[in-house]
Structures are given as C-alpha cells and as structure tokens.
Specification:
Its cofactor is heme b; Ca(2+). Its EC number is 1.11.1.7. It is a single chain. By secondary structure, the chain is an all-alpha fold. Helices cover about 50% and strands about 0% of the residues. It contains 30 helices and 4 strands. The strands form 2 sheets. It has a two-stranded antiparallel sheet. Strands 3-4 form a two-stranded antiparallel ribbon. α18 runs antiparallel to α20, α18 crosses α21 and α25 packs across α26. The structure holds protoporphyrin IX containing FE (HEM) (2 copies).
Length: about 650
C-alpha cells in the first residue's frame, strides 16, 4: 500500500494527465494521414447523395456515440459484453453502421490503423450537416476507440423522447453540456425521421400541439399501439432534408414532432433561445457548431488509452482474442500504485503533444529559459505580496475575454481604462518579467504568453494545481474599445444566464465557467463590487452580510474598502470558494448566482466536495481560456515591452 504522501502526487499526475489528454487537435492527422478528411468527406457525400436521410442517420450516430465519444456504439456484442446497439434508444433505430464500415475500409486503405472510428464518426457528422446545406466547423481530432461497450450506459445516458425539459437539461448537464447546447443540438431534428411509436402519444394525448398538424399525422398513425409502430414521419415537416433553422419555427407554431422537441418551447426557460434560433439562422448555426464541438469533446480516449480499431464493429482485443472485460477499480488502484512516475510523466508528455495550434514546446529551442525566468519572478512577487497571485491570474482572464489572449489589456488606452479593468493590478510585475525575459532572449517571448504562464505560476505559488501551458501566442498591435470590454467582461451584477451565455460565446461550457469562477478563491474585491449583494440580495448568509456591512456603507462611499473574495482562505488556491457558495457566502452577486437553485448547483456541490474534481476542471478550463482567439504565425507581433506596441 502506498503511503499518502506518495499516492497524492501520483493521483495529481493522473489527474493532470487526464486533463491534458482531453485535448484534441484539428491537425492530428496532418502528417500521419493527410488524406483522411478528404476520404471521409467524399464517402459521406456519396452516401448522402444516394439517400439524403443518411446525413441525419450519421449525425445521430455521432450523438449516440458521444455521450463518451469512443465509437463504442459501433461495437457488435461479444462473448464478454452486450454492446449499445440493442439499448432501447438504438435498437431498430440507429442507421448508417454500414456506411461507417465502408468509410473505415477506405481510410484503412490509405492509412493503416491510424484513424480512429470515433474520429470518423465526428467528421462524418460534420460532413453530413454540410452535405445537407448546414454550417461547417473545424473538427477536433485524436480520439481513440474503446475496447468495450456497455448497453446499460446507453440506456441510462441517452434521453428518451418522453423527457420533460428538466430531465433533458439534466441529461445534457450530466455530460457538461449547457442548456443552450442542448437547445442547439436538438436543432439536429431539422433533418431525419422518427418512427410513430416515438410520437403517437403526443399526437393523440397532448394539448401543446397544433391541431391541424396533429390531425394530419393521425391520418397515417393509428391510435392503437402495435400497428404502424415503425412507419416514419419527418422530424421537420417543412424541410426534412435541409439542415436549416426551420425546426425552431415549427416549435413556435407547436409543430414539434416529439414530446421532447416541444418541451423546448412550452412556456419554460428555453423559450427565448428557441425564439432566437427561429429568427436567426446565423445564431443557430454558431450555437450548433459550438455545441457539436463540445459534444465531440465528451470523454474522448486519447494518448495511450483505448486503441485504433481496424474494423469499426470489432475491438482489436477481440480480433486477437484478448479478454476485454477488465479493470475493476481494485485492478486500477493496484496499477496506479505500482506505476512509476516516469511512465506517468510520459503519459503527460504524450497527451500534451496533441495540443492545438499552440504548443507547450514553442520556446524550447528559441528561449529554453523563458519558463524558468517567468516562474521565479512570479514566485518572488507572490511571496512579497500574496494577493499579487490573484491580480496576475485576473489579468490573464481580462486579456483573454476581450479580443482574445493577445496582451491587448496591457496597452494604455480605452481597453485599460474601461470600467471592469480599472481595478486591474500587476502591470508592473509583468513589465519587470518582460524585461528579464528580453535580457535572455530578445523579442522572442510574447507578452500574451508571459501573462498565460504567470497566471499558471500564480496559481501554483498559492498552492493550487499545475498544468502544461500551450504557447506561441503573439501580441496585438491594437487595444480593444471600451464597448468591446463592456460586452465581454460582465459586471458582478450578472445573472447565471448572462454568465453562461458570455462564456458560451467564447466556446467555454457552463462547467468551465463554474470552474474558472473558482479563481475567486483568492484575491480581493472593492466595496462597490459587492455593495448591492450585501444590502439588497436575500440569498446571502445574514451574519456574513452584517460583517461586511460594518465596513462597506450602504448607498455610496467605501470605494477603497476591500474584502476577500474567499473569507476563509483568501491567499490559498483551494476549493473553499465553492463551500462558501453552499453556505450563501459568495461575496459577489455573480458568485452566488452559481449556487442559487439553478442548473450549476450540482457542479458547485461537486467542486465543494472534491478538490481533485475542481483542480482538474480548473486546469482544463484555463487551457481552454488560454486558447481564445490567440494571434499566431505571422499575425500581430512580439512586443519589445508589454505596455506599448513596437
Ligand atoms: C434532446 C434529446 C433528444 C431526444 C429525446 C432525441 C430523440 C430522438 C428520437 C426518438 C428520434 C427518432 C428515432 C426513431 O424513431 O427511430 C430521433 C431521431 C434523430 N435524432 Fe434525436 N434526440 C435528441 C437529441 C438529438 C441530438 C443531440 C442529435 C444530434 C446532434 C439528434 C439527432 C437526431 C437525428 C438526425 C435523427 C433522425 C435520424 C434518422 O433519420 O435516421 N438528436 N431523436
Ligand atoms: C464569472 C464572471 C466574473 C465576474 C463577474 C468577475 C468579477 C470580479 C470582480 C467584480 C472582482 C473584484 C474587482 C474589484 O472590486 O476590485 C473580481 C476579482 C477577481 N477576479 Fe473575477 N470575475 C469573474 C470571473 C473571473 C475569472 C474567470 C477569473 C480567473 C480565471 C477571475 C479572477 C479574479 C481574481 C483572481 C480576482 C481578485 C483580483 C485581485 O485581488 O487583484 N474572475 N472579479
């Protein structure tokens, strides 16, 4: 049995490794199989030309796979497991398995055992949407295939058409998909067909259905179950083979085919999103593509996990006769306890190699001491004044959310003097670090990268988790306007819905939003930022509010009064922020919004009870935040000093 002190770093490494492995990259096959994507696209185009509905069937296959995108849905049953194909939502209903098998055979012909079935599903889903006139997006790649499948997981995770809004929301939230993602993804029902057994009850028994629409369906679908069960009707009657936003227009006139469809527009919280998507095809397209990427990111296997199958319906383990039913939790813990640090480090290295345009080794040859120089300067600044760690972390956030992570926040001008940025600190520390880095490598390391690394080193200096920072950002030559700042950095009066939607617009999920808000486990806020919350809100602990009121007067004044964002451990990067929220001790209105009876309550509970869950979600979200619209290649410049363009 490993001692605690030995096991803890091991677990941390495992956690970090799985954080890093969650990163897929759009260029994954660029060298190993440059023709993979064009091979898949032309095969999908042929299949959809033959039968337009196949586009719908392939899109749905990716969805049914992705509640864990590992191609497990494609595996036939074996002696050791019953696969997903006979699960209730799949049996007699999923289609396109043969098309995928054909595509796989064509891809194997160009690159032997290189491209996973899970990636083929993800690309085929995108190509299907495009073939039917819908939007395109860049598919992140590098998923590997599972070696096993589990019928009961599919029965448990895939939502049935009888679900109400609350169940639908919960089932998507369970996969870290926001309510907006859920509404956008449901727009997939703008193509394809459903069997009568899935909407009979709705057209005979429900009242939130257009009566002419119901009557016309009743004409072909008898009331008694057992007859005509498998006959088909289009999910979008108006344009069943065009990927458009007509689905939402249908919902507005109570012409959703499935009970679950009409739930999205039934006097509830998603009505306005449906109205928005119905009136704006481009709003729908952009939400749909963002949500497809989020869905494609659900628990992929990467690095050395899983396998690359040669044929999508069979695991290589089965092909070679190896037992697939492995890995009880006891087996796993003994594997973990005996694994060496070296192999875990190797896993981390392998995993991070799969990162997007940015790369963790960007300065390895051009400025090998860059990272060490930044780290020692940050550590010195934080030991002099612990709050500086908080200020540097916030600087990176304010940089990334406005015009992307391009160090624009460091330039004097309208961006820096906009409301939310007036309380930023740490500019001098960044200037000093830049001077030290310039001294060893002239005009090589960007200010945007320095901000990103300094944010990570700040978290570490205050006892928080570490992660590998992808690098290669370049600096902007302009700052943003105050309007851009106001549109992208929400005030502390923001509601949960506003928070979710701004993060969503950056490609960050609700879980990322909650995790990143955990940054408020360190640092301070000024009285005007929390005044309204401690005097006007009711979702605040009374004695907590009273103690803050003692120093922060009602009405006005107290502009220089500070309070710690986390009263319990203001200078320690831990998960206390989330426990504070559970006892209604969030300092800002926006903090307490995360735990106020809404969709993020469970995530807050999870992070409050598990420091490891928070650390890993935080590290993942920081990497994602650091990826917001970086300037790369020949874009922008590398500034000589951070406060001015060259
Ligand atoms: C919101 C929860 C969802 C429920 C309850 C649901 C349920 C269903 C049902 C019952 C059918 C008809 C199956 C049949 O009668 O054989 C169907 C078809 C379909 N679903 Fe969903 N679905 C949901 C979300 C999604 C998502 C997220 C996607 C993809 C992003 C999707 C894509 C499709 C497509 C394209 C079809 C037509 C397939 C074909 O014609 O072969 N669905 N869905
Ligand atoms: C969810 C939306 C967010 C809102 C509305 C928000 C708002 C605020 C406000 C009002 C303050 C206090 C400013 C003052 O009174 O001086 C603050 C401080 C801070 N914020 Fe946020 N914030 C958000 C998200 C984040 C994120 C994503 C991070 C980093 C990942 C972050 C890191 C910090 C830190 C570390 C401080 C303390 C800074 C210091 O002591 O110098 N915040 N935030």
């Amino acid at each position: 049995m490993a001692s605690d002190s030995y096991l803890f770093p091991l677990l941390l490494l495992v956690a970090l490794a799985s954080v890093a492995t969650a990163q897929l990259s759009s260029t994954f096959y660029d060298t190993s199989c440059p023709n993979a994507l064009s091979t898949i696209k032309s095969a999908v185009n042929t299949a959809v030309n033959n039968e337009p509905r196949m586009g719908a069937s392939l899109l749905r296959l990716h969805f049914h796979d992705c509640f864990g995108c590992d191609a497990s849905v494609l595996l036939n049953d074996t002696a050791t497991f019953t696969g997903e194909q006979t699960a209730l939502p799949n049996q007699g209903s999923i289609r396109g398995l043969t098309v995928i098998d054909n595509i796989k055979a064509q891809v194997e012909a160009v690159c032997n055992q290189t491209v996973s079935c899970a990636d083929i599903l993800a690309v085929a889903a995108r190509d299907s949407v495009v073939a039917l006139g819908g939007p395109s997006w860049t598919v992140l790649l590098g998923r590997r295939d599972s070696t096993t499948a589990n019928k009961s997981n599919a029965d448990r995770d895939l939502p049935p058409p009888t679900f109400d809004l609350a169940n639908l929301t919960a089932s998507f939230a369970n996969k870290n998909l926001s309510v907006t993602d859920m509404v956008a993804l449901s727009g997939a029902h703008t193509i394809g067909q459903a069997q009568w057994l899935n909407f009979r009850d709705r057209i005979y028994n429900e009242t939130n259905i257009n009566s002419t629409f119901a009557t016309s369906l009743q004409a072909n679908c008898p009331r008694t179950s057992g007859s005509g069960d498998t006959s088909l009707s289009p999910l979008d009657t108006t344009s069943p083979t065009s990927f458009d936003n007509a689905y939402y227009g249908n919902l507005l006139s109570q012409k959703g085919l499935l009970h679950s469809d009409q739930q999205l527009f039934n006097g509830g919280s998603t009505d306005s999103t449906v109205q928005n998507f119905a009136s704006s095809a481009s709003a729908f397209n952009s939400a749909f593509t963002a949500a497809m990427i989020n869905m494609g990111n659900i628990s992929p296997k990467t690095g050395s996990q899983g396998e690359i199958r040669r044929s999508c319906s069979k695991s290589q383990l089965e092909v070679s006769g190896i037992e697939t039913d492995c890995c009880s939790s006891e087996d796993l813990s003994s594997v973990m306890a005996s694994a060496s640090f070296l192999s875990l480090l190797l896993l981390v290295a392998l995993a991070t190699a799969a990162s997007a345009q940015l790369s963790s080794t960007f300065y390895s040859t051009s400025c090998p001491n860059a990272l060490a120089t930044i780290k020692s300067a940050v550590t010195a600044a934080v030991s002099q004044e612990p709050r500086m760690g908080a200020s540097l972390l916030r600087l990176h956030f304010h940089d990334c959310f406005v015009q992307g992570c391009d160090a624009s926040v460091l330039l004097a001008g309208n961006e820096q003097s906009a409301g939310p940025n007036l309380s930023l600190r740490g500019f001098n520390v960044i200037d000093n670090i830049k001077t030290q880095v310039e001294a060893i490598c002239k005009q090589t390391v960007s200010c945007a990268d320095i901000l990103t690394v300094a944010a990570r080193d700040s978290v570490v200096a205050l006892g928080g988790p570490s992660w590998t920072v992808p690098l290669g950002r370049r600096d902007s030559t302009t700052a943003a306007s105050s309007t851009t700042v106001a549109n992208n950095l929400l005030p502390p009066s923001a509601s949960l819905a506003q928070l979710i939607s701004v993060y969503q617009s950056k490609g960050l999920s609700a879980t990322d939003m909650v995790a990143l808000s955990g940054a408020h486990t360190i640092g301070q806020a000024h009285c005007p930022s929390y005044r309204a919350h401690i005097y006007n809100d009711t979702n605040i602990n009374q004695s907590f509010a009273a103690s803050l009121q003692a120093n922060c007067p009602a009405g006005s004044g107290g502009t220089n009064v500070l309070a710690p964002l986390d009263t319990t451990t203001a200078n320690t990067f831990d998960n206390a922020y989330f426990s504070n929220l559970l006892s209604q001790k969030g300092l800002l209105h926006s903090d307490q919004e995360l735990f106020n009876g809404g969709s993020t309550d469970n995530t807050v509970r999870n992070f409050a009870s598990s420091a490891a869950a928070f650390s890993s979600a935080f590290a993942t979200a920081m990497v994602k935040m650091g990826n917001i619209s970086p300037l790369t290649g020949t874009q922008g410049e590398v500034r000589l000093k951070c406060s001015a363009t060259n």
